[in-house]
Specification:
With about 100 residues, the protein is mainly α. It has two domains: about 35 residues, no CATH class; about 50 residues. The protein contains four helices and two strands; from the N terminus they run H-H-E-E-H-H. It has a two-stranded antiparallel ribbon. The longest helix has 22 residues. The radius of gyration is 22 Å and the shape is flat.
Amino acid sequence: MSRESQKETPQLMAPDWLLTYQRAMYVEGIGHLDQYGSYLNSFWEKGIIYFVRDYYYAEIQRQLDKGVPPEEVRPLVQRLNALNSDILEWENGRGKPGDRTL
């Protein structure tokens, strides 16, 4: 048996208390994820919508820089515009918009 195969495999399991009493996943080197519930359940409250908006914008720029014709990028621009409208509604205190833009 080689020396490498004799090395002990590190234990990557979460502590027992977490597995028993908490709704979360433990990731070695990162820590506990989803300890307080899914960010998808608080999509607007946690500001995740702004990351989605930035992604759409960056993807539009990337496609245009690659030389994709604007007509092909238009559906993504329309999604970005709809998302910006929903964000404006949210920021003006009108509650969560429908999920039609995602």
